[in-house]
Amino acid sequence: MKIAKLLAAAAAAVLLAPANAATAAPAEDGSVHKNIAGGNTTSVSAAPFAAQVSFDTAGTKVGYVGLSGSFPSSGTAAKVYGWGYQSEGSGAMSYFLKSADVTVSGQASDPSGGPTVSTRSQSGHTLNGDSGGPLIVNDKLAGVLSTSSILPAQNPADYTGYSNEHASVARNLSWITRVSGVPGS
User: Cα separation of 70 and 89, whole Å?
Assistant: First the structure.
């Protein structure tokens, strides 16, 4: 049981270093599928191979994801990843890792007062179950999804008016480094 939990955690992780990861949700298989309320999905290895998987802006590179040591500039292109609902209010979780393009829109605070990277959805939008998923900016982990706008319909034609708040890695970097031993760059 303990090994199964470790493999599930590894399969769910954005790898920061050989022994350190930021987790989001469990992996299923290596299939690639479209649509997380728009957006695309990314191939992910099954749990035994998860230590080889990480994310980049194209969703194709394999390796460790560095921690962003600086706050991303407004207007910067980024990607979000998640395992959440297939469409707003559906209650049906995705079987596949999904990704969507977003644009950094500035700094804010989440409902708990934590510093966040604000983004605007472009090709898709984060939904229930995507919380904890990575925000990748310039091949580095810049944030972890905290909250997002509720969509007014199951799959609107345009996602650009919807916002997301990601807990800021740069603003919490000293704590992350102290706990994980992984420095920012």
Answer: 35
Architecture of domain 2-180: Beta Barrel (2.40)
Please give the Cα distance from 4 to 37 (Å, whole number): 31
pLDDT in tens, 41-55: 443 333 333 333 444
Query: Identity (one letter) of the amino acid at 166?
Result: H
Domain ranges of the chain: 2-180
pTM: 0.70
| DSSP H helical ranges for the chain | 2-11, 173-180
Longest dimension (CA), the chain: 45
CB 120 within 8 A of CB 105: yes
Q: Among 24, 78, 77, which Cα is nearest to 53's? A: 24
